[in-house]
Amino acid sequence: MPKYKAIPAYYSERKYKCPDKLQTAVDKYFKNPVHKIKKISSDGTVVEVPVLTISGLAYSLGFCSRKSLYDYIARKDTPINIKLSTVISRAVFFIEGNYEGLLQTNNTAGIIFALKNMGWRDRTEIVEEHKFNLGDIDVSDLSKEDMFNVMLGKLTVAQIKARKAKKR
């Protein structure tokens, strides 16, 4: 989920001041979401499938933007605001879970895009570690070319020692 800074208290009045009323509105959205798509079921009938979205949740709660939703999450300056933040956080988490479940389908590009916008990362970290024994030779004295040749087996420790001895 994107991180947003809380808006100052003087900037806007809260639409919801009671966590229970906010929870009721969230539950209403989950029972009857704003967005629905028509799909053909396995028996050939057309069915409406609810689509849970962050923007749909924000719209059904009466907000003008998704940012307003995230402002509710960020604002934790009073106990009541902490409770309001928790209600919205859990709703967003539920929608994230819905997207995560949709990753099991064939068309995942849009779902991956949505999850990345919710703060998920698509990154693989590869750590490579090369260790080789050069005996008493100081590796910092070797050129990049010599290091490369040692790794490829084209240059031996004996050859490096012989070259160093000639230079002295």
Describe the protein:
With 168 residues, this protein is mainly alpha-helical. It folds into 2 domains: 19-117, Topoisomerase I, Chain A, domain 4 (Orthogonal Bundle), CATH 1.10.132; 125-168, no CATH class. The protein is 49% helix and 7% strand. It is built from 7 helices and 2 strands. It has helices at residues 19-31, 54-60, 66-74, 79-102, 109-117, 144-152, 157-167, and strands spanning 35-40, 46-51. The protein has a two-stranded antiparallel sheet with strand order 1-2. Helix 1 (19-31) runs parallel beside helix 4 (79-102), helix 3 crosses helix 4 and helix 4 packs antiparallel against helix 5 (109-117). The chain is elongated and about 85 Å long. Residues 7-11 have low confidence and may be disordered.
What are the main properties of this structure?
168 residues, mainly alpha, Topoisomerase I, Chain A, domain 4, 2 domains, 7 helices, 2 strands
Shape descriptor: elongated
Helical proportion? 40-55%
Radius of gyration based on Cα positions: 29 Å
**How many strands in all?**
2
Give the CATH class of the largest domain: Mainly Alpha
End-to-end Cα distance: 62 Å
Strand content: 5-15%
Number of domains: 2
Q: Write down the overall mean pLDDT.
A: 79
> How are strands sequenced across the largest beta sheet?
1-2
Question: What is the CATH fold-level name of the largest domain?
Answer: Topoisomerase I, Chain A, domain 4
CATH architecture of the largest domain: Orthogonal Bundle
Give the helix/strand class.
Answer: mainly alpha
- Low-pLDDT ranges: 7-11
Largest sheet: 2 strands, antiparallel
What is the N-to-C succession of helices and strands?
Answer: HEEHHHHHH
Count up the helices: 7
